[in-house]
Design a protein that fits this description.
This protein is an all-alpha fold and 80 residues long. The protein has three helices and no strands. The chain has one domain (12-77). It has helices at 12-24, 29-60, 66-77. It is elongated. The model has no long low-confidence stretch (mean pLDDT 93).
């Protein structure tokens, strides 16, 4: 795997917390930050994918706003 080194600035209290967690997990700072970034990006991209899918499916059934969602929910609950 190719890697790239870069510098970042972090507040001291965040570095202390990261170092504490890294030590508890028997990792170094770099490994902890890589895992944190991987997790963040996975979650971020998953949510974006979900919203794109939701918009696509909503469009298929005529939902273009939150009001449309509430209207469809109320109709369903009322048996209409």
């Amino acid at each position: 795997m190719l890697t790239q080194t870069f510098n970042i600035s972090l507040p001291n209290d965040l570095v202390k917390k990261a170092d504490l967690v890294a030590k508890r997990e028997y990792r170094n700072r770099s490994e902890l930050i890589k895992e944190a970034l991987r997790t963040y990006l996975f979650n971020k991209l998953s949510w974006e994918e979900l919203f794109v899918y939701g918009k696509k499916m909503g469009k298929k059934i005529g939902i273009s706003s939150e009001e449309d969602i509430f209207e469809k929910l109320n109709n369903y609950r009322n048996g209409s």
